[in-house]
Design a protein that fits this description.
Layout lengths: L1 H5 L3 H16 L8 H12 L12 H4 L9 H16 L10 H30 L1 H13 L2 H5 L5 H17 L3 H15 L3 H14 L5 H28 L14 H11 L13 H11 L30 H4 L7 E3 L8 E3 L2 H17 L13 H20 L19 H26 L14 H5 L7 H8 L3 H11 L2 H9 L3 H13 L5 H7 L14 E7 L1 H5 L12 E4 L2 E10 L6 H7 L2 E5 H11 L6 E4 L5 E16 L2 H18 L6 H9 L11 H4 E14 L19 E3 L1
Helix pairs in contact: 2-6, 2-7, 3-5, 5-6, 6-7, 6-9, 7-17, 7-21, 9-10, 10-11, 10-12, 11-16, 16-17
Length: 729
């Protein structure tokens, strides 16, 4: 543990800071993360015993296409449960969203530790500079650090795969097999596609015997399946009222494997061409780092102890890599000598991942999260190539640079001239001695691995100077890759911040309802009955219906209020919110039964078409005979698209003007018009994201008021269409 903490570098801490910043900037979750997020909330805030209490859990109402394991949510809830247990109620915020941020911090810390172990193992196996290059490449990309804190089953499995690869690089095959088996049995059954080529490699290299592999694989995999069945059978099957003929035991990943492979029903969520991972997913996530992949085959420089790149624990390269194969010589027509290649990164890293991607390409339904385990391994291949370019240049980034200090991978002119002079003198002396001993003129020996790559493969002729210059400064390719990968990062971040309209809409609903000086609220609360509060007043209950699109783009139980929010420090009348995600209700039924709707844009436009007006809403008759008037209170932006460069420049000027006017308490009219032009009349300050991406109104916060306060609406909590209303009090 001490050595692990002692090896943490500044780049490691910078990566952790980037992960935490993404959590803060994009706090909401999408539908793919819904199960783990909702299950973690239910474990934290709802009782798990007796089995009948599981009826209030979210997965009983919305089970999803396939079941998932509760081990991830349970492990996430344990540390947060300790924090909430000692947190006094007076310090609780209005909503539970900070707890959701805490859940994502726990996930991010776990993945950061796993990636740190992977980096340390890579540095021990391929040199310390390789570990630094790996972190630089990871920091320059957007998708991998962004998803390291997401509550996806793929993210949990990625942590175990990183630990497995770290064990493989540390030459610990038993630990590697353990992590792969548990990742497959508990979180993602498709990890077995990556595990098979790795296990075959261990067998061929005789790190494991076949009998050991079968015994340990059965032991570790069986233990993981047993733990999954033990926990998930209780949460998914216990306490159900209906009599089902299904088996009381459940292994979720077994169901997922049958669903995706045998039934092939994942195609119901869309199909992509077979080359989608190579043509779309990898270019978006890795950007320009594949340019460094071929360089990972270069042979490392062999230098004496203390003068060159060293292996793990200070041993020389020959001692550190004694189990590696002999480098292969490949003749190339444009080089005077065959190029020596090292196939270790190809066999250990690239080929298993390439086979994993090829086999996964047979499934029609494709998503980026399915290939998460491939991203850090491919980044490691690029990092190895970058580090070996610097090593072969003569710089000592992995070891010691000039004058015993870390170098930048570029030799000074004086150093190169000195090396050439000493080499020339040594070659001439050796030639003269050989000629005297044999009585004939010998050709000078070819340079060894201790020389620079340019001098080793190119003659010093004028025609070779351009190629010599390019090879001598080839390590700059790594910095060009990092720089070019950083350029689109603001675009990705701007699109991500505008990609959760459901969570943004729920936050705006709470800000609207619980505003201290909201005159609109009184017109809503008077239509509902309440119960006697602590101070003798009545509690107000507001009903909100959450549409399908809102539920898929950021709404979760963590976004709900803790309990009733009182206007006088919790005394007297308070406000409670009853949330509902009922499905199968018509628009008219929702307008009659709820005070607010988070509806899609098409539904809001349908209301305006019914009334024959463009800006106002429509009227429906409530159950008590009252006339209910519905109107759009606020539009919520979504569906980000990249702007054209001229529009970005125009929006940049508008954003600068809005910042200037915002200091005086008002917004520029020009920026207000730009925001209202394509957003259904939305009027709000322009954010920095709007300079880069263009959005449109996808959700509408609709308020339904009673025009004539004649009667009270009956309280209606019965189930409709398979859903159930839930009161957040």
């Amino acid at each position: 543990m001490a050595s692990f903490l002692g090896n943490i570098t500044f780049l490691d801490l910078l990566l952790l800071a980037v992960i935490l910043s993404y959590i803060w900037l994009c706090p909401y979750n999408k539908v793919e993360e819904s199960f783990n997020t909702q299950a973690t909330h239910d474990i934290l805030f709802l009782p798990a015993f007796p089995p009948s209490s599981l009826a209030a859990y979210d997965h009983r109402f919305f089970p999803g296409a396939v079941p998932r394991t509760f081990w991830g949510p349970l492990l996430l809830a344990l540390p947060l449960h300790l924090v909430l247990h000692v947190l006094p109620p007076s310090l609780r915020p209005a909503t539970k969203l900070p707890v959701q941020l805490g859940v994502r911090v726990v996930v991010g810390l776990f993945l950061w530790v796993a990636l740190l172990r992977f980096r340390q193992a890579a540095a021990s196996r391929f040199g310390s500079r390789t570990g630094q290059c790996l972190l630089l490449l990871t920091l320059s990309q957007f998708h991998l650090p962004f998803y390291l804190s997401r509550t996806l089953p793929n993210t949990f499995a990625l942590g175990f795969v990183l630990l497995a690869y770290a064990s493989l690089l540390d030459r610990a095959p038993t630990r590697c097999l353990f992590y792969l088996a548990w990742a497959t049995a508990l979180f993602r059954c498709d990890v077995i596609v990556l595990a098979l080529p790795l296990l075959l490699l261990l067998l061929l290299r005789r790190h494991l015997k076949l009998s050991q592999l079968l015994l340990l694989g059965t032991l570790f995999g069986g233990a993981g399946i047993a733990l999954s069945v033990l926990l998930d059978s209780y949460f998914w099957r216990a306490g159900r009222e209906e009599k089902s003929s299904a088996c009381p035991l459940l292994w979720p990943e077994g169901v997922v494997l049958f669903f995706n492979t045998v039934e092939n029903r994942s195609i119901e969520w869309g199909a992509s061409p077979w080359h989608w991972y190579v043509s779309s997913a990898l270019p978006r996530s890795l950007l320009t780092s594949p340019l460094l992949w071929p360089c990972c085959l270069l042979v490392r420089r062999k230098e004496r102890r203390g003068t060159g790149v060293e292996g793990a624990k200070g041993e020389s390269l020959d001692e550190a890599d004694k189990d590696r194969g002999v480098p292969v010589s490949v003749p190339l027509p444009f080089l005077p000598q065959p190029l020596r290649l090292d196939l270790e990164p190809l066999l250990l890293l690239f080929l298993p991942v390439a086979l994993y991607l090829a086999l996964y390409s047979f499934l029609p339904h494709k998503e980026l999260r399915f290939i998460f385990p491939a991203l850090p391994v491919l980044n490691l291949c690029a990092a190895i190539g970058w580090a070996r370019l610097e090593e072969r240049e003569g710089g000592r980034r992995g070891g010691m640079g000039q004058a015993g200090r870390p170098g930048l991978g570029v030799e000074s002119r004086r150093t190169r001239m000195s090396l050439r002079k000493r080499k020339k003198e040594g070659v001439e002396a050796e030639t003269q001695e050989a000629g005297k001993a044999c009585g004939e003129k010998h050709q000078p020996k070819q340079p060894e691995g201790g020389e620079t790559a340019v001098e080793a493969i190119l003659p010093s002729s004028p025609s070779s100077r351009p190629l010599s210059f390019l090879l001598r400064h080839a390590s700059l390719l790594g910095w060009l890759v990092v720089t070019s990968s950083l350029l689109p990062l603001p675009l990705f971040l701007a699109a991500a911040r505008r990609n959760y309209p459901g969570g943004e809409g729920l936050a705006r609903f709470h800000a609207h309802v619980f505003a201290p000086n909201s005159s609109h609220a009184d017109a809503v609360y008077i239509t509902h009955g309440g119960r006697e509060g602590e101070g003798g007043g009545k509690d107000r209950v507001v009903k909100l219906h959450i549409g399908v699109l809102a539920a898929q783009t950021g709404v979760s139980r963590f976004g709900e209020v803790w309990e009733k929010v009182g206007s006088e420090g919790g005394r007297g009348r308070g406000v409670g919110v009853r949330y509902s995600k009922e499905e199968g209700l018509s628009l008219s039924a929702r307008m009659r039964r709820f005070d607010y709707l988070l509806a899609e844009r098409e539904e809001a436009e349908e209301m305006t078409r019914r009334a024959g007006r463009k800006e106002s809403g429509t009227e429906v008759m409530g159950k008590g005979g009252e006339s209910r008037h519905c109107e759009v209170v606020e539009w919520v932006q979504g569906r980000p698209r990249l702007r054209k460069w001229r529009e970005s420049l125009h929006m940049l000027g508008s954003y600068a003007a809005s910042l200037w006017d915002r200091g005086g308490g008002s917004m520029s009219i020009h920026a207000r018009k730009l925001m209202g032009g394509k957003s259904g009349g939305l009027s709000q300050p322009v954010g920095w994201e709007d300079v880069l991406v263009e959005t449109e109104a996808v959700l509408a916060l609709v308020a339904c008021r009673v025009r004539d306060a004649g009667g009270e609406e009956a309280d209606d909590e019965k189930e409709v269409g398979g859903g159930k209303e839930k009161t957040g009090k």
